[in-house]
Amino acid sequence: MKSARTNAPSPVAAGDWPPGLPLDTERLVLRPFRESDFADVHEYASDPEVTRHLRWGPSAAQETLSFLRHAIAGVRTADTSQFHLAVVERKSARVRGGLSLLERAPGLVEIGYCFARPVWGLGYATEAVRSAVRFAGVRFPGADLFGLVTPGNPASERVLLRAGFTPALDASPYATWMTGVCSTARVFRQRSRPPA
Ligand SMILES: CC(C)(COP(=O)(O)OP(=O)(O)OC[C@H]1O[C@@H](n2cnc3c(N)ncnc32)[C@H](O)[C@@H]1OP(=O)(O)O)[C@@H](O)C(=O)NCCC(=O)NCCS
User: Which of 63, 163, 186, 193 is deepest in the core (most CB within 10 A)?
Assistant: First the structure.
């Protein structure tokens, strides 16, 4: 059974992030990245098991740093079409994963995520994706929200299904992003809706 939500403050400093962030869930906080996240991020970004189903990685240290700088710059320039979020585990205050919402074209938003291996199977991805879907409903109302799942990644498929995605009947609108390991991916999608 999941632990009761604590009233502990989010393990993040008050910051200059866009409206609606950070996202608070029972066990996690989703907030913009910081350069000081490097060690935690590099731990999972350099793990070939974590990046096996992703279009990037495993990353060298310089690639992790470049990613962090790119993600942080997006927030500083108030680019509201690209959200790269650190997933912070409340109890350890460590970044244990990353989740991105990227507006690929007007009204077409891709969700992607990955987590450090030691926290797989705890339900964190489901918790984070559900929260991101709610945020997308506010930030990208009416958008086509999609995720790509490579063959052999049933855990990710399960996460998306539980977060309200369904298999796309026609993959052609997403073909531009079905590259590399994602060339044979299944597409899961849902219409982004403001919370009721
Ligand atoms: C895929 C990933 C995000 C899942 O994260 P997670 O926090 O372990 O996910 P959750 O615990 O929320 O849920 C995983 C679900 O998949 C199930 N699952 C795990 N491995 C499975 C497998 N081999 N076959 C079928 N189901 C599986 C789990 O049982 C769980 O479902 P349940 O709670 O109904 O039992 C994580 O493994 C990861 O980061 N992988 C590497 C990066 C990646 O693949 N990202 C997604 C790209 S599309």
Answer: 163
